[in-house]
Amino acid sequence: MNVSRSLRNVIIIELFVPITLLILGIYHGLMQVVYRAGVIHQSSAVKLDYYQGLTLHGVINAIVLTTFFAVSFGHATIFFYLKKEPNKKASWISLGLMVVGTLMAAWAILAGKASVLYTFYPPLKGHPLFYLGTALLIVGSWIPLFDWLVLYRSWKKENPGKKVPLAVLGTLVNFIVWFVCTLAVAYEVLVLLLPWAMGWTPTVNVTLARTLFWFFGHALVYFWLLPAYIMFYTMLPKVAGGKLYSDLAGRIALFLFLLLSVPVGVHHQFSDPNISSTTKWLSTVLTFAVAVPSFITAFTLSASLEYAGRQRGAKGLLGWFGKLPYLDSNRYLFGYMIAGLILFIFGGFTGIVNSSYALNNVVHNTSWLPGHFHMTVAGPVFLAMIAMSLHLIATLRGRKIFLPKVNVIVPYLWMIGVLIFSFGLMWGGLMGEPRRTNLGMTYLNPQNELYHPQWVPSTMLALSGGFIMFLAGMLYFVVFFGTFFRKKTETAGLDLPVSEAYHDEKMVPLFNGFKPWIIVMVVIILIAYVPALVDVLSNSGPGAPPHLPHNPMPGI
């Protein structure tokens, strides 16, 4: 499918920039496990502080990569399915704001002026350019949504009575969730944190800032996840050699995410004493409800893959498992997606532990949480994003995949690394191993009186998994940049695998538009967050002066 030069360049830049920065993000991921395993017994290495590296790792991997990719993938799906190009001027303004915002935040972090982690919790204080850069990145990512909505409304007028393509529906669901949840963090950054960082206000309301962040922070997880879900429903059955079991199941799952993604953030604040137990109980119920679309997806994709296996000659109850194209270099997207889904099984079940108020108290702020986190974000999210980035770069530039046999083993090597790494973290978490902590300076330093030898096996296991992940990441970069700079040998254009539906149900108006769902979404958010905000504003306590990492005395 032919693409204008402008749109092609926008998508390519939105993929190339974050994948290039990802080199730095993965390097600092490796350094985290090196520090935590006690290999380094100091606060910094290679002129970068531990918390500086942790901030780079989180911001690049969890915010920059995911936001840039979601916008580029959104442009691709909207254009491919609606046959309408996004507005040229709006696309370039969006890209410009995102790049400038990223550079501003990157400067602040690399200069050691914003070691506040990707959650940027106050009273940790960053440079004003970090907060302003973050705001520009978010605003830049809003612009395409309003442009896509114009194209969507135009397509519906031209195609009355037709079903909106599932990928388009998913893209719009994702960015509606993103727009709603980022309103809170934009308020936090622009009204609370930026004036405080510039010295205009002496203190900041920490609990309000935390609540606003988690209004955004857990919905952010679904912003990461939904592009992968779009690929699972609309592409995975095709590359597996089969059909999507049910188109309607995909629509139900996507709209459930629209309803439930935002109002569950309070479960990140189970330990905050100024939020009532009733509010926390409601958040628990809503968080468990989010498992419903995941179970719908598990059934639908299993049925789709079983059909694919049987189409390829499988016999017996489970014979279809062995007939799927795991190592077919021409269907490498399958390997990335299936490896991500295997990790997601473990990530989903460990997430249920975090959702429970009682069980969460056992693992809160331990290494269990990043163990779970990497099962999801470094599993289906990351693998789907880097696979589609490679696919889009190859097709838009007319390049063949560089080292295809290496490419097809990357996702499985990454999967093995994540399983080992996350198991080490979760094992350590159950023994009380803290998260966000440079263990090498104290708990994993045999010369320190705080030395905890029981954490040596778990941190070394995590370290071994981290090395395997790092190796897989480096192999991916060889494939990606080798493909990018390879000579053109194919016809350049946009090509996405499209799965035909086995059960292509009739159009149901309720699952073909947004108005009733957005109304219900707003109602659920108000039910969940009005009590939480009342609790926080009624019990905030005094404002907090800044805390700088190099100075443990607040306000000095």
TrEMBL record:
Record Gene3D superfamilies: Cytochrome c oxidase-like, subunit I domain (1.20.210.10)
Transmembrane segments: 12-35, 55-80, 92-110, 130-152, 164-193, 213-236, 248-266, 286-305, 333-353, 373-396, 408-430, 460-485, 516-534
Superkingdom of this protein's organism: Bacteria
Cytochrome oxidase subunit I profile domain: residues covered: 13-512
Alphabetical list of SUPFAM superfamilies matching this protein: Cytochrome c oxidase subunit I-like
InterPro entries found in the cross-reference section: Cyt_c_oxase-like_su1_dom (IPR023616), Cyt_c_oxase-like_su1_sf (IPR036927), Cyt_C_Oxase_1 (IPR000883)
Keyword annotations of the record: Electron transport, Membrane, Respiratory chain, Transmembrane, Transmembrane helix, Transport
Protein name: Cbb3-type cytochrome c oxidase subunit I
